[in-house]
Amino acid sequence: YFTVDDKSASGGTAPLLGTFRLSLTDSLWQGLTTAAVTSAPAVAPDGSVYVGSTHGMFYAFNPDGSKKWVSSQITGIFDTAAAAIADDGTVYVGGTAGTNNTDGKVFAFNPNGTPKWTFPVPAPTGGTTANSISNAPAIAADGTIYIKGDDGYLYALNPADGSQKWRFQTNGLSYGSATIAPDGTIYVPSGDSYIYALNPGTG
What are phi and psi of 183, to 5 degrees? Predict the structure, then answer.
């Protein structure tokens, strides 16, 4: 849309001749991070926007674009891992492993930015590559969080404390997130050429 910066008119009788100076505004606001943003933002019901950047910082922006809070707890990066927001406002997001750790982690933040819990996803057994989280969490109606690690496992986590309920091995890496059906069935894409349908109670 356009905004009018200033205007002027000459002559004393109508129609007046004048000029307008306009600026083209290409966004409602622009929130600055200090690195590239390659994952999708998540938007809460109150309009808050949550997104991570490739330098490992996780940002919360107010609806007007001002920074709400910033977390530097993540030692890795955010690439394709978007956040998910629970009904109580808790923000869940997974990050890749950083230079100082071998585990990718799932992070839970309260709406005000204080940490709620973290869950480390173990690196693959016998592997030399640190594990990462490359997909967005899926949140079930009962609050259970489902997220897949690059170790090929889908993890079911307790929303209260981040403890593991169960895990299921899919034998393949996929950046695709899990999807939850109305009946609670969890559908998981995998790089092994299968899609899996899982029981929410046992996996």
Answer: -85, 5
